[in-house]
Amino acid sequence: MGKLVTTLVLERRDKFNRVLQRQEQLSRSWVRHFIDFSYIASGYGVNTLNVHDITGTNRTLNAGVMSNFQVMSTPGQCLAFNVNGNRIVGEKVGIVVGSGVPTVTPTDDALTTPIPHGMLSGQFLYGGTEIFGLTFANPNGSFTIQRYFTNESGNTITVNEVAIYTVGNGSSFCVYHDAVSPGVAVPNTQILVVQIIPAISI
Amino acid sequence: MKTELKGQQNLKVVSPQKIPHFYKNGEVGAVLDMWLNDTKTGLIIPDSRLVKKSESFLQQYLQILYAQMKQLSQTNPLGDIPISNGGASVYGTGVSGANWVAAMFTPTVSGGITALLVNTGGGDIYGATAHIRATSGGLPTGADLDTATCFIHYGGWGYYLFGAFTTGYVLQAGVTYAICLSTTGSFGWNYVNNATPGAGATSTDGGSTWTSNNTLSAYQIAISGESAVMDTAGSSRCIYALGGGGVSIALDVLAGAANTNFGIVAGTDGTAPVISDHALHAQIAEGSGAGQLNHGAVAFGNPASDSSVSQFTITRNLANNTANPITVNELGLYCRCYDYSTLGEVVAYFAIIRDAVTKTIPNGQTLTVNYREQVSS
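^ inputs. structure came back:
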């Protein structure tokens, strides 16, 4: 009652998109920057904050210069934004995954050990982040954020953490960071589908 | 973590008490914290403080968050809504005076119409009206089910946008309806190259009788879907988020003094909230007349976090300057966003929180209301 609760779903699929493993857990962690972005959006023209981006660099955010809260993204290295001279590619926006085993705290700025986009060892091919399925049936409502990660690296990759990066003032910011427990091992040629499902109830 | 509560931004912190943690890890919610104080002295009335978990978010909160994350945009306002596409093959089928033109469509989802886009060859489109009618035998029939007027030239490619359909008629999936266009001036309803011709009709007597003409005309119609949000006045709006370095005012609650369109608002109806509430049930007006409250400017407490909770606070003072006590039975948080279904970049107001709570404000006292959005991680 009176809250937003989020479910994290990871599905491992073969190259024919058949589901081999499904793991579902209650999310534990929208982090401090979610509140920071809510604060900025709530005080248009007045509220300003210095916020760490995913590199730990302090960035000034206000409603006049931010493309706030965008999570839908382009794939991999496709240019998602070019704001204030900063180029942001798809793998820095939306759902992102990592191999680190984090102890999540409210002040996390990024994944512990990001898994980059690519086909080299330890890399996933990042699809675009999609947002869909907004539905309501009193007393509940929800939508789905989803991204495909394809392993063409030649080796198994284990995912132990998931995050959501959003965009503001030409930089990426972490608004969500969860530990995946247990980690999901994705063999070569297989696909990992990550869904994050925010839901409200009253 | 201690509170940082202020009646106004230039005031000192007035209640540095520890805030209860109401939410489990991973949950996002709001805490409602309020108390009475003497309007003249500002002194807090003893034992008047009430702290509780808010009963909301309402549906509109999730819809706005969705629009922001997805960046539903003004430049593609229909892009992510279920759309029925019409075909066309004739250039500039004439619409003028008693000469009406119709195109049939069959929606694939049920819902109200949130926007209609037509492709025209110029003329007096600004005097145009779109009439939605039932069909019989492939022709329009009966009275208007819904109407809208044209208000905006969109994108510079001959597209014109209708919106704000007046009755909110709910179309049924799989049923064929007619879009009938009339105008006080004249214009041509254009075709789109390579489009499949759609069923159409023309009328020369102001829409009373129709003749089949299956060579008509380009349109897109949006049925209320993911971006259609009910505003506080009960109208369905298509909101959009501005991106790419532009400004955004989604979730803006920063109302000035005496502005009751948004920010924290109060009412007298204590009916329990449901997710589809789009406004307070009986909002208290601004003023010092009987039954009214003076609404202060909205202020903020800055974001803060401890080892498990992050939060910020939205504050407003509601002063009873009447001669009698006023009992508040509901509180809400309204925000403003952009809406593209009316002319240009105008704002619309949306309820994102509604709580049933009872608090009597004696005359000469002020109710300080704080909504504290929290995440726990």
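Chain B touches chain A through 59 residues (CB under 8 Å). Confidence is low (pLDDT under 50) at residues 1-14, 75-91, 243-247 of chain B.
thumbs up if we can close this ticket
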